[in-house]
Amino acid sequence: MPRVKLELPTEFHFTTEIPIRITDINYGGHLGNDSILSILHEARMRMLMEHGWTELNIEGIGTIMSDSVVVYKSEGFYGESLRVQLSVRDITKFGCDIYYLVRERESGRDVVHAKTGIAFYDYEQKQLSPVPEKFLEQFS
């Protein structure tokens, strides 16, 4: 079966550090695949909060995840800290992709390359909504 390939951008809009917690470790003794999505979620929330937004309120419009791609590059271990870089790309009428480069902070080794598809969604109307203007201004 062919491997998933994900080409990351070379420029990033936001960087944060997130420690690997003991609850992120699976029975194999390394960072669990379920935990990486939580780490990406935390990084995405931190990026939005930097602009005064949340996932439910970007200029009055919410977001909903449409897809995700995770490519594992190396193991992560308890006690390590991850440097997570995010880049907003591929903006369309109703959404965008957010790319993630996750590296172990001290060694710089790649741990995960990832992408999440985000759609803008009006939770009251239960329908897609155009990308908010201020989001476009920030990331175009």
Brief account:
Helices cover 18% and strands 36% of the residues.
Can you characterise this structure?
The model has no long low-confidence stretch (mean pLDDT 97). The chain has helices at 33-50, 133-139; strands at 14-19, 62-72, 81-89, 95-104, 110-122, 127-128. The protein has two helices and six strands, in the order βαβββββα. The radius of gyration is 16 Å and the shape is elongated. Strands 1, 2, 3, 4, 5 and 6 form a six-stranded antiparallel β-sheet that branches. The termini are far apart. With 140 residues, it is of the alpha+beta class. The chain has a single domain, classed as Hotdog Thioesterase (Thiol Ester Dehydrase, Chain A, Roll). A hairpin with a 5-residue loop joins strand 4 and strand 5 (110-122).
Task: Write the topology of this structure.
Layout (H helix, E strand, L loop, with lengths): L13 E6 L13 H18 L11 E11 L8 E9 L5 E10 L5 E13 L4 E2 L4 H7 L1
Antiparallel strand pairs: 1-3, 2-5, 3-4, 4-5, 5-6
Label this structure with key terms:
elongated; alpha+beta; Thiol Ester Dehydrase, Chain A; six-stranded antiparallel sheet; 140 residues; 2 helices; single chain
Taken together, the total number of domains comes to 1
- Please tell me how large the radius of gyration is: 16 Å
β-sheet strand percentage:
35-45%
Count of individual helical segments: 2
